[in-house]
Write the structure tokens for this entry.
Amino acid sequence: MNITVTVNGSARTSEVEPRMLLIHYIREVLGLRGAHVGCDTTSCGVCTVLVDGLPVKSCTMFAVQADGRSITTVEGMASNGQLHPVQAAFHSEHGLQCGFCTPGMIMQAAWLLGENPDPSEAEIRDGISGNLCRCTGYVNIVKSIQQAAGELRASESADVVAEATIAN
């Protein structure tokens, strides 16, 4: 069966078996290795990608279900050679240890901050609760998301000021 998806801004058409999982399509057909294969049961979240802007655990979604949709993987977060603020914050705040959960955690965090640009610590912990990290106590992950939230809010404020300056 042929499917056409937009992955990280580029349209891709591929022939896939109807039973192929989205995570295997992303990794094996498209060659994007950021999202990992973990539990295959939606329990760990290491395979999280955004489908039409919503977080999806790609280990339990068929590739054919993504036909006509837009997929963003961790590789698609950076822009013009610059890390996305969530990626940069995970780096600067040491929000990773072994790195296995990090791509899924980053995708979940990016979605969370899109929904709630100023989350409390409890809201962050709740927002990432479907993504497991077996190495850390989540302290630096939460700090990373808090830092990214602040940077995104500051950048948005700067954009508003710049737009107002240009309009005058």
In short: The two ends are 54 Å apart (CA to CA). The mean pLDDT is 93.
